[in-house]
Write a structure and sequence with these properties.
Put_MntP, cell membrane, globular, membrane, manganese
Length: 186
């Protein structure tokens, strides 16, 4: 597979993580570079590891995983989206809302946004591709896109405060439904 194809796949795989990174930049008060690095690294690592797991697993688990991976991603993203909306509606200006830096939340988000990458890894195995190039490219591209997206959320999200947090929650819900619909109908 050509390098440009792998880069385009990496960009496509990183879009869900980008949306969550932008939302995280909006939600986190007084964000630091270390916050952006933590979120970006988590998404980049999971986006890189999932194709590797898929590639290693190959044909053995493809039918098993593909039958419910979309449901896992859907449930996690919809739950977190509603949680953001609920906490935004119930919060006052002094109350802390949804924390994307919480380890468990970040792990759930990282898994949910990278499940599709598992299927890509399976397809790489079916194509008998070497995985090291795509592994590194997908991880790096996702990291960079999410790092930039985090600061975009921070810079522009404060213009709209709570409304943008709710939009972030809605975005997570939409991503969850999109994943579900793509897997059910395509």
């Amino acid at each position: 597979m050509e390098l440009i194809s792998v880069i385009l796949i990496a960009i496509g795989l990183s879009m869900d993580a980008l949306a969550v990174s932008v939302t995280s930049g909006i939600i986190i008060k007084n964000p630091k570079i270390s916050d952006a690095l933590k979120i970006s690294a988590s998404f980049g690592i999971f986006q890189a590891i999932m194709p590797l797991i898929g590639w290693i697993s190959g044909i053995k688990i493809s039918n098993f995983i593909s039958s419910f991976d979309h449901w896992i991603a859907f449930l996690i993203l919809v739950f977190l989206g509603f949680k953001i909306i609920y906490e935004t509606l119930m919060s006052d200006s002094k109350k802390e809302t949804f924390n994307p830096l919480d380890f468990q939340v970040l792990m759930l988000l990282s898994i949910a946004t990278s499940i599709d990458a598992l299927a890509v890894g399976l397809s790489f195995a079916f194509l008998e591709m070497d995985i090291m190039g795509p592994f590194l490219i997908i991880g790096f591209v996702t990291f960079m896109i999410c790092f930039i997206g985090f600061f975009i959320g921070d810079k522009f999200g404060h213009f709209f405060e709570n409304k943008i947090k709710m939009v972030g929650g809605v975005i997570l819900i939409i991503i969850g439904f999109r994943i579900l619909i793509e897997h059910i109908f395509y």
